[in-house]
Amino acid sequence: MATVGRAGLPIPNGGDAPVGPGALAALAEAIDPHLMQHVTDKAQRDSLFGDAPLHTAVTAEDGSLWVKTSASTSTWATIYEPLPSWRPITLKSGMVEGDVQLGVRRRQGVRVSLKGRIAKADGTNINEAFAANLGAVPSDCIPSGLRGFPALCSLGGATIQAVGRLEVIGSNTSSAYGVAGDLIWWFQDPAGTAWVDITGDYWMD
């Protein structure tokens, strides 16, 4: 039995030739783009269906579901994908994880989430004159440009401000305080702070 289409639909051959198999093949080719295609993972999706027609729907073994949004390129909209696990953040020398576990994860290709607290290993306040380099995200979580958001901090001791600015240096950004992917903490309270909570989100693009 011969097969046609990306879904491998069977068609008869031999006795009904030439009209029967050709008619069934045409039907199969018409049906095939409308079927839910099955792959192991995203890499196999791109390999097998990168040149598939617009609107092609593909699902993976982990439940991920994508719909092709371009007729000419391997461009996909993510309908669903499992939430990825938290991954570690690289800390700079002299910094340690605080009492909230650190982590980073990238969701749906373009959204990065951070969590956890960072403190100094010697127990003193984070109190650099201008900006403190706390750590770095993995290479696949480095945004295209500079990203920043408010970050909470400790109010212990003489500190009177409860929030500062956390920046993630982008791949097309230059900084005197770090390189692409570094987490830079800006804080205007002269007393400094015992810890910084880096919890927040930013876009890759």
Report how far the terminal alpha carbons are from each other: 48 Å
What is the string of helix and strand elements? EEHEHEEEEEEEEEEEEEE
Largest sheet: 5 strands, antiparallel
Average pLDDT figure: 92
Q: Output the radius of gyration.
A: 26 Å
The percentage of residues in β strands lies in 35-45%
Helical content, roughly? 10-25%
**How many DSSP helices?**
2
Category by helix and strand content = mainly beta
Shape: rod-shaped
Tell me how many strands there are. 17
Which stretches of 5+ consecutive residues score pLDDT under 50? none
- Order of strands, widest sheet: 7-12-15-14-13
Task: Please explain how this structure is put together.
The structure is a single chain. By secondary structure, this protein is mainly beta. 10% of the residues lie in helices and 35% in strands. The chain contains 2 helices and 17 strands. It has helices at residues 19-31, 42-49, and strands spanning 2-4, 9-11, 36-39, 57-60, 65-68, 76-80, 90-91, 95-97, 103-107, 111-115, 117-120, 131-136, 147-152, 163-168, 182-186, 195-197, 200-203. It has a 5-stranded antiparallel sheet, with no helix packed on it. Strands 3-4-5-6 form a 4-stranded mixed sheet, with helices on one face. The protein starts with a strand and ends with a strand. The mean pLDDT is 92.
